[in-house]
Amino acid sequence: MNKSQQRRLFMVVLGLVVATIIIVGRLVLFQVVEAATWAEKATDEVRVIARPDRGIIFDRNGAVLAANTADYQVGVSPRLVTDAEQMATDLASILQKPRYEILGALESDEPFVLLAGRVSEAVADLIRTLAYADEIQLDPLPRRFYPQGQLLCHVLGYVDFEGSGGAGVEGYYQRELAGEAATAVINISPLTEQRNVIAREGADLVLTIDRSVQYLAEQHLARALQEYRAASGSIIVMDPRTGAILAMTSWPCYDPYKFYEEGRNILTNPAVQQQHEPGSVMKLVTMAAGLDSGFFSSQSTYYDAGVLEVGGHKTYNWDRSAPGITDMTTLLARSLNVGAATLATTLGPDTYYAYMQKFGFGRPTGIDLMSEASGTMWLPGDEFWTEATLATNAYGQGIAVTPLQMITAISAIPNNGVIMQPYIVQEIRGENGTFVHEPTVLSRPIKPEIAQEVNAMAITAVAREVNEAQITGYTIAGKTGTAQIAENGIYLPDDTIGSFIGWLPADNPEVIIYVKLDRPKTQPWGSLTAAPAFADLADELVVLLDIPPDNVRLQADVMAARNSSP
Asked: Does residue 34 sit within a domain?
């Protein structure tokens, strides 16, 4: 081997040694130093998220109230666009954006540009009709849809763009409706057996609400607001025997599909979240407490001088009358403030407020709707309670309630002294079966016989003084209310809240209705605004709910008695 061959051999050996060092070095780097990093990059495992569909909401008869649809995100990859000029022209009119803005995005050097963050299905359908639609990327974004429009807006609530319920049933039952997403890391190697990732689908809800009853209530509220030129108002229809809410409406309303266009004050449910001083409808509770306590009976009388001073505050009758010796039924029928204050002060604060708490004032009812307010009732020892508070609370001033609290408390009278838990959802239909709500007793504030006595008084009160609340063929029991409105600690001289609460048939009630009208302009009195609104609604409601008139029920009772006799 000559020297030339030796040099070549040396160079080859040297090259092999260098190559070996490099290879070994790289192997050490890959398998030791960067082992964890490369192992993660080389894995066949990926994280998979399965997202469930939100549950559907139905009314009690199966009508769909809330369902699911999709909006779309619009984007393009500029490098794939064949005719940017034409695309910009077409999309400008569809997306309602300046053409130059869209053209600039289409001619950019970005790998992907977002042209619209969220558009409706109708807009997406227009984009799909374009000749170059395959160059545009439409990504679905889940969206809640309300096929009944504004109907039941406050009860249903809304769902935001993140999938969270923001009010009403949607907010209260967020966990049940939303279901539960499933996340798993799975191996995507073709040599590995694949497994499914299954989410827990959202449960469906069936409400106690009857869509037809709700529609009727909303129409009558709108009519009353227009007729009496009231600023706002609420109507609640409840079954006092079970606590089931058949209708709940307030105005102003909104479109839950476009919740983002409204302010927070419009999105709250006035029937559940806004407090007001109820006025004389509270006299039903004061009377019930007075009779149940034993301090008074239905035959008791008192002397009404037209004014009663308690704690430095003078209480006058609303009509400035001084009727003298007065019985309990007349007190209620004529809605005498002095009489109500006399009852409460005779009972004393301990007894009176014990009854008020039994009736549920000062705390939420526990209804299955989001963010229920608790009301405000000052008790002896509280900073804002005075001796005069006892007198004014007796006729519904100086105390704040929600419409739901008021109807729930009064429902004890037509239901033999028992208050049932108010509720909105009748069934929850989930993967593990169907949960059916069972009516639940909330409290028993008065004895059955006392409830029957006050019920008889409420019948007389309507028959004597509130002809506007009566409907042909049915005996109505109820009470009017007219409350002053306080702002910044001062009662406004010209603004009132007119209300009426009534139930029928009075001897065997199937529905109780509360009508509240805020700041009516034609008349300040509940007897001339809320009471006729109640009658108009009840007159149609008895037909819709198939509630027989008194004579038909009486005849049926007589026939049943004859058939059962030996």
From this structure: no
Closest CA to 404 of 557, 498, 269, 528: 269
Q: How many CB atoms lie within 10 A of CB 377?
A: 21
What is the rounded distance in angstroms from the CA atom of residue 413 to the CA atom of residue 409?
Answer: 8
Dihedral-angle region of residue 103 (phi above 0 means left; psi in -120 to 50 means alpha; beta otherwise): alpha
Could you tell me the CA-to-CA distances from 50 to 91, 181, 197 in Å, in that order? 33, 6, 6
Q: Which residues have CB under 8 Å from 110's CB, separation 6+?
A: 78
The residues near 301 (Cβ < 8 Å, ≥ 6 apart) are 325, 326, 327, 328
Per residue in 74-117, pLDDT (tens digit) is 999 988 888 888 998 999 999 999 999 988 888 888 889 899 98
CATH of the domain at 258: 3.40.710.10
The percent of residues above 90 in pLDDT, for the chain, comes to 70
Domain end, chosen from 125, 142, 159, is at 142
| Distance (Å) of CA 331 to CA 234, 296, 353, 407, 514 | 27, 13, 21, 21, 21
Q: Provide the whole-model pTM.
A: 0.86
CB atoms within 10 A of CB 488: 5
